[in-house]
Amino acid sequence: MNDSETRGCFISIEGIEGVGKSTNIRFICDFLNDLGIKNVSTREPGGTPISEQIRDVLLAAGNKSLCPMTELLLIFSGRAQHIHEIIEPALTSGSWVVCDRFTDATYAYQGAGRGLPTDLIEGMENLVQGLIRPDLTLIFDIQADLGLKRAHRRSKPDRFEREELGFFNRVRECYLTRANAFPDRCKLIDASQNIGEVQNEIKNLLEQFVASQT
What we know:
Elements (H helix, E strand, L loop, with lengths): L9 E5 L6 H14 L4 E5 L5 H11 L8 H26 L2 E5 L2 H11 L4 H12 L6 E6 L2 H11 L10 H17 L4 E5 L4 H18 L2
Parallel strand pairs: 1-3, 1-4, 2-3, 4-5
Helix pairs in contact: 1-8, 2-3, 3-5, 4-5, 4-7
């Protein structure tokens, strides 16, 4: 949790493709704005000009030869820049940060999905992030096949979205495991509900979290 009264809170938004993260991040930021809480919305991979260039490499469908270790190092390189340029300055200034994916995604995609060792990811997490961890993580959950159908209707598949269903099943299971392992931080939301039901859950969780910070 926050280490001072003036430091902002860090909220990460997680889930596989097609869970509606973008729509719900707008809802979260509007909710915070209504409460007069300064906030910054950002994303990973990406968030800064340099990190966005790394995102382009990671998502380009033509980069089929990108190996899992290169993928992991690129993600943490982008994250290092993101923390330095956006996340830490915002939190220090008292703004709340709402981030579309963070390190839970690395454990899910590069760990469970690609098969990289958890202790390797944990070592990189400690090296790159120091003490920075999300204060609250909302994990939007949906069956992998349904999420992919939604994602493919939205846009042309990127390099990750072209993976087989088994990949996304492993990613989803990792998210569920992390939700169980970190219940104080991670809150699971059923993304298969209609948008009104989903956003009512978000509102309730945010009201509880904001109250806990005062």
